[in-house]
Structure formats: structure tokens, C-alpha cells
Specification:
Layout lengths: L3 E7 L4 H11 L5 E8 L5 H8 L3 E4 L8 H14 L4 E4 L8 H6 L4 E5 L11 H7 L4 E8 L9 E8 L6 H24 L3 E6 L2 E6 L2 E2 L9
Parallel strand pairs: 1-2, 1-4, 2-3, 4-5
Antiparallel strand pairs: 5-6, 6-7, 8-9, 9-10
Length: 218
Amino acid sequence: MMSKRIVVLISGNGSNLQAIIDACEAKQIAGDVVGVISNKADVYGLERAANHNIESAVISHRDFESREAYDVELAHAIDKFEADLVVLAGFMRILTPQFTEKFAGRMLNIHPSLLPKYQGLNTHQRAIDAGDTEHGVSVHFVTAELDGGPVVLQAKVPVFPEDSADDLASRVHEQEHRIYPLVVNWFVDGRLSVADHNGQQVAVLDNNILGSAGYSPE
């Protein structure tokens, strides 16, 4: 079986990119990161790619007059890498419906909340402000709805009374680096897909429809 080709989109530090690269090199993922694309220059994630001899590209959104024009160029860059899977790893862009449709069923995102809670930004502070006792992270398929695609896997962390947003972010990041490579491997192994069920998009793992919170081992 040919190794699957993974393209990772970033906007910053790229710690989840690093977790996925490390898992590929350790053969914990039956695929390879063949390309890294950033919408910002001079971010550390690009150095991570260079450190592993992975081809990278910078496509700045500032160079385009519209979101649609940007996404056309981004899709073209992904296609040049012949990607089997597109992984969003801290890619801070709202994607157009045309783009999400083109890569439907083969694009994953990681979001720092227990979706459907706290879609969008500032999730850690929002969890603290709400008085939540648990918080977490979700890996989901990307659809046109912001942070709204079918959830594949979540990991929970406790929220302590004295936590700052940075404390909580650190705890969540640790879980991100564990679950994202796992979900990527499920996909490249052919175990994970998206299906239409009663008019709704659902995630399917090992031929089982996953619930709204994704896979649960209980």
C-alpha cells in the first residue's frame, strides 16, 4: 500500500505539525507530510518543515483581493502536492464553501474546545468565564460551517479555579499532540471517513457511525 500524502496548513508555531511529523517518522502514521503551507511568512512552523526537509510554501492572504481568490490559489497549491489528506493545524483562516467542498471528506481540523461548545476564538478564557469544570479539544472533519463538521475524537482536561487561559491552553495542547496524530492515522489507514446519515454528515470509524462527541472508548 502506497504511503498517503499529507499536506498541513499552518499560521504559526506549528506544534501540532511537529507532533504529526514525529508520528510519521516513527511509523505511527502510515503516511508522510509532503508539504506545509502557511498564510504567514516567518513563522516557526516553516522552520519545523525545513528541519525535516519538507517542502513548504507561503501564500499570504494579504496578496489577494478576496477570500475566494485566496482559496483558489490555496487549493491549487494543495493539488500540486497531490494531497490525500489536508490537515489544518492552527490555520487561522475562515475557508470558503467552495474550498471546503473541494476537499470534503479529506480535510481535518483541531479545535481547542469540546465542540459544539465555544466555536471560534478565545476558547480557554470563555470556558473559564463560564465556570466550566472541564474543557478540552476536538478533532473534526471540516465543512462549510465554522468548527461545525463531524467530530471524530475529543480529549477532556480539568479546569481548576486558579487557572489562567495560558494554564488551560498548556493542558489542552498536551492532549492535542496525542489525539491529532491518532486521528490522522485512522484516516490514512482507511478506517475513518464521512458519510451522509439521515441528511446529516457523520464521521464513520471502522464502519461505525460516531456520536456527536466522536469516538468514545467507554
